Amino acid sequence: MNPATKTRSVILGTGSFAPENIVTNEDISRKVDTSDLWIRERTGIRERRVASAGESTSDLALEAGRKALGHAGISPSDLDGIIVATATPDLTFPSTACLVQGKLGIPGTFAFDVNAVCSGFMYALKVADSMIRSGQCETLLVIGAEVMSRFVDWSDRSTCILFGDGAGAVVLGKSGKEGSGGVGTVTLHADGRYWDLIHVPGGGAKTPVEMERPPGNACTIRMKGSETFRMAVRTLEESVREVLKEEGIGVNEVDWVVPHQANIRILEALSERLGIPLERFVINIDRYGNTSAASIPMALDEAVQDNRIRPGQGVLLTAFGSGVTWGSGFVKWT
Ligand code: COA
Fold it and tell me: What's phi and psi for 222, nearest 5 deg?
């Protein structure tokens, strides 16, 4: 088949949602030995959103999904499927995607979760894009949603400062016009040898909640911060270069980098290594912290809604997360 006539997927609409409740660095410094200055200087984070007692991942996902559908002008009944990227599902099973599907009232539409933690949105995007390219589907809702706050040890100053809650979504559709842009190369990688760099030990089949020793604290995030930092910078750079090479483009054709928001210093290092000024990065870590799989679609939605991202521009997405997993993708905005 002539490459120009191949089906591509395009992003038809974006949406995002964050809980109302804001937790500032000052709030955290009243509970653990840290300061607003330390957190801002070492991470770039000023505040994060934290879900209220009645809110869970599927609620945030539903709101972001509804907004993306509204922005795309697509009715839920037009969807072929829903894919939710999350590492913090409402329940061990069924999937959060099924809960969202039920709330959208579209029985029969397939729904499943993807778990690649902070790289989850890249993984879900690749799966959705592949389903559309292969002709199996025409319209999919892809959501990244997390309630990280329920898995944070709020007495551990090295991790509790980093994470936040939120959701972002895109509606992916079949390209209407040949060679008219859309989702291009998406590369995914993982290295399970480093599974313990960032992990939650309890709550799974290996350590069910009732077997936790000591009880009650195993379902929270454990992280080797500086090793994670170094690996993130290296793998993000490698995978961005892989995408640029595959696309046959240089950094000048990247108008916007929409990265996973883990630490401003990771993004500064990436900007320097790639030679793409930080001004061309979409950054909202100051207001949301690390929202894991939600961070890329939340930042993407922000930059689309305020017209930074416009049709014809080159948008590069890139993520690193627990697993360890990483991946990048290029979208010619339509
Ligand atoms: N407030 C004040 N001091 C803190 C602190 C906090 N919140 N957290 C750690 N410290 C202290 C440490 O105890 C250590 O003190 P010591 O030198 O007396 O032992 C010192 O600060 C330096 O710790 P270190 O871990 O080397 O700091 P860092 O500069 O690497 O920053 C992170 C720590 C967690 C912010 C940083 O490593 C990071 O962001 N890593 C990547 C994490 C990440 O992105 N995870 C998700 C990936 S998707």
Answer: -115, 135
Query: Active site residue: 25, 115, 263, 290, which one?
Result: 290
d(CA 178, CA 194): 41
Domains 3-178 and 183-332 share a fold: yes
- With a Cβ cut-off of 6 Å, ligand 1 is lined by 34, 38-39, 42-43, 118, 157-158, 161, 198, 223, 225-226, 228-229, 232, 262-263, 290, 320-321
Q: For ligand 1, atom 36, which residue shows the shortest CA distance?
A: 225
Q: Which residue has the tokens 């200087």?
A: 41
Bin 329: left if φ > 0, else alpha if -120 < ψ < 50, else beta. beta
Q: What is the predicted pLDDT for the residue at 176?
A: 64
Q: In whole angstroms, how far apart are CA 38 and each of 25, 28, 157, 170, 288?
A: 9, 12, 11, 35, 17
Q: State the DSSP code for 289.
A: -
Backbone angles phi, psi at 225, to 5 degrees: -60, -50
For residue 13, which amino acid is it?
G
Q: Which helix (H) or strand (E) holds 144?
A: strand 139-147
Q: What tokens appear for 330 in the block?
A: 């290029």
What is the CATH code of the structural domain delimited by 3-178? 3.40.47.10
CA distance 288 to 299: 10
- Chunk the chain into consecutive blocks of 10 residues (it has 334) and report each block's average pLDDT, rounded to whole numbers: 69 98 98 98 98 97 98 98 98 97 98 98 98 96 98 96 98 80 96 97 83 70 95 97 97 98 98 98 98 98 98 97 98 96
For the domain with range 183-332, which CATH number is right: 3.40.50.720, 3.90.228.20, 3.40.47.10, 1.50.10.10?
Answer: 3.40.47.10
In the chain, which residue ranges form alpha helices assigned H by DSSP? 25-29, 36-43, 57-72, 96-104, 120-133, 157-160, 225-247, 264-274, 285-288, 295-305
Which residue is catalytic, options 25, 115, 260, 263? 260
118 labelled catalytic:
yes
User: Does the pTM exceed 0.85?
Assistant: yes
Which residue has its alpha carbon closest to ligand 1 atom 20? Answer: 158
